[in-house]
Each structure stands twice: as structure tokens, then as C-alpha cells.
């Protein structure tokens, strides 16, 4: 155990994390010594160009991937010492994921897609409550094919937050959406962060989206190149790109 144990208000501490993918003869250095802290309840945007290491970093924090080197703490537990079973429990109990593509089950309604998670979670909200949170109370019995892309993404968000996760990790959540529907999705994420106090990290390469964050973490070439606080964070409803 290192000398400085992260405080309770620090949700993630990453120290010198590296990730190298071996592609035949070539080593791809996706992360080159990243130090990072994420704090309870904050809304962070990870901003950087394609290939800068954003998804790799988010996947490591969420226990979907493991670093090649360095240490990652989730609160006072060292994720980098977890075995596969412990990582699975960690993801199930504490992490909500939202991806660019919604990964809904086409043959299930919105309510049933969310139920898949609430049935196995420890202290979930009801599927109806989760869907109302993302303003889909009137789409409970719609199938994915009967909903717009933005609505489907909001079902995916309801599914991610219905178990009341400690952290919500979103990888390009508006990447497949036009501005109007993208803003509605960002409004849903912002509302969840504000009302449930879920620590939230959103990956984007769209600098406009960074304006809604408490803190913006810039990545380039597998390194953090800057961290800035937004003096005035903007409501998602004001964003345009
Ligand atoms: N499974 C993998 N195998 C090999 N190389 C990978 C793998 N995953 C990512 N990489 C490489 O690691 C680097 C960082 O990728 P990553 O997906 O983390 O970047 P990103 O900033 O999220 O990019 P994007 O915005 O395009 O999703 C890239 O050079 C990528 O090609």
C-alpha cells in the first residue's frame, strides 16, 4: 500500500499508467504514464483527438481493461490488483457504461432492456423511474426500432444508471447523433450527475461538449497535456455544434 491512501472524496487515482498493445512487430503505446484523479460527484470531460488514448483510459477506470504498468485505485481499493472475478463484481456494483452505439436488445422494449439490469442489481431504482429520469416515461413499451437514435441512447443511459452506480463512464455518447438529439442525451447525463451526484466522465473529441464539464482533461498522444476547470459550466441545452 503506498504512503498516501486516496481520501474518501477521491473516486479514482491513477498513477503512471501505461498501456502498450503489441501488434505483431509493432508496439502501440496507447497510454504513456498517465496520472489522474477523479473526485466524487464531479463532471469531467476527457477531450482529445482520435487515437489519443481516451477510450483506453476510460476502459481501465471502468475495469474493462487493465494497464500494462502503473496503479489505479477506485476509492481505497487497488483495481490493478483485482483478478477477473473481482473486476466483474466491481463493474457490476459500481460502474455504469454508455457507449457510442446503444447496444440495446432489439426484441425487448425500453422497460425490458432496463429490467435486464435492475433484476440483477443490489439496490436498483425501478425501470420506470430510470426511464422517467431520462424523460422517456412515455416510451416504456416501445422497441428500439420504434425510437430515434437519441431516444435509444437515453434508454441506454437509463439502463446504465438504474443500478445507482457510483460512476458513470460515457464513451462518445453523442458520436452517432445529430446536434438536436445529442443535446437531449447530454441534458440527460447532466441531470443524472446533478440529481444523483454520480461521478461522471464523458469522452469526446468535440470541444463544445467540454463546456458543460466541471473539469476538462486534455489527452494527446497517450498523455494528459492539460487539465482545466470551467469557471462557468454551461447547461447542455445551450450547446451547439
Ligand atoms: N485493442 C487494441 N489493439 C491494438 N491497438 C489498440 C487497441 N485499442 C486501442 N489501440 C490503439 O491505441 C491508441 C489509443 O486508442 P484509443 O481508442 O484509446 O484512443 P481514443 O482517443 O479513444 O480514439 P477514438 O476517439 O478514435 O476512439 C490508438 O493508436 C489505437 O489504435
Automatic annotation (TrEMBL):
GO terms for cellular component: membrane protein complex. One of its GO terms (molecular function) is transmembrane transporter activity. Pfam families: ABC_tran. SUPFAM superfamilies: P-loop containing nucleoside triphosphate hydrolases (SSF52540). It comes from the Bacteria. Belongs to the ABC transporter superfamily. Macrolide exporter (TC 3.A.1.122) family. This is ABC transporter.
Amino acid at each position: 500500500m503506498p504512503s498516501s491512501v486516496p481520501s474518501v472524496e477521491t473516486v479514482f487515482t491513477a498513477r503512471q499508467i501505461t498501456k502498450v498493445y503489441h501488434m505483431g512487430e509493432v508496439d502501440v503505446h496507447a497510454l504513456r504514464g498517465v496520472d489522474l484523479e477523479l473526485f466524487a460527484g464531479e463532471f469531467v470531460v476527457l477531450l482529445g483527438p482520435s487515437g489519443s488514448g481516451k477510450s483506453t483510459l476510460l476502459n481501465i477506470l471502468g475495469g474493462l481493461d487493465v494497464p500494462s504498468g502503473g496503479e489505479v485505485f477506485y476509492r481505497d481499493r487497488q483495481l490493478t490488483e483485482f483478478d477477473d472475478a473481482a473486476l466483474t463484481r466491481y463493474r457490476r456494483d459500481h460502474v455504469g457504461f454508455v457507449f457510442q452505439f446503444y447496444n440495446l436488445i432489439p426484441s425487448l422494449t425500453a422497460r425490458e432492456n432496463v429490467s435486464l439490469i435492475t433484476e440483477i442489481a443490489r439496490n436498483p431504482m425501478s425501470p420506470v423511474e430510470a426511464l422517467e429520469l431520462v424523460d422517456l416515461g412515455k416510451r416504456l413499451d416501445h422497441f428500439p426500432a420504434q425510437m430515434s437514435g437519441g431516444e435509444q441512447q437515453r434508454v441506454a443511459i437509463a439502463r446504465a444508471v438504474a443500478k445507482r452506480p457510483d460512476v458513470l463512464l460515457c464513451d462518445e455518447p453523442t458520436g452517432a447523433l445529430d446536434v438536436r438529439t445529442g443535446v437531449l442525451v447530454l441534458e440527460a447525463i447532466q441531470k443524472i450527475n446533478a440529481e444523483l451526484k454520480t461521478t461522471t466522465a464523458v469522452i469526446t473529441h468535440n470541444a463544445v461538449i467540454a463546456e458543460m464539464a466541471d473539469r476538462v482533461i486534455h489527452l494527446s498522444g497517450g498523455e494528459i497535456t492539460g487539465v482545466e476547470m470551467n469557471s462557468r459550466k454551461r447547461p447542455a441545452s445551450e450547446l451547439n455544434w
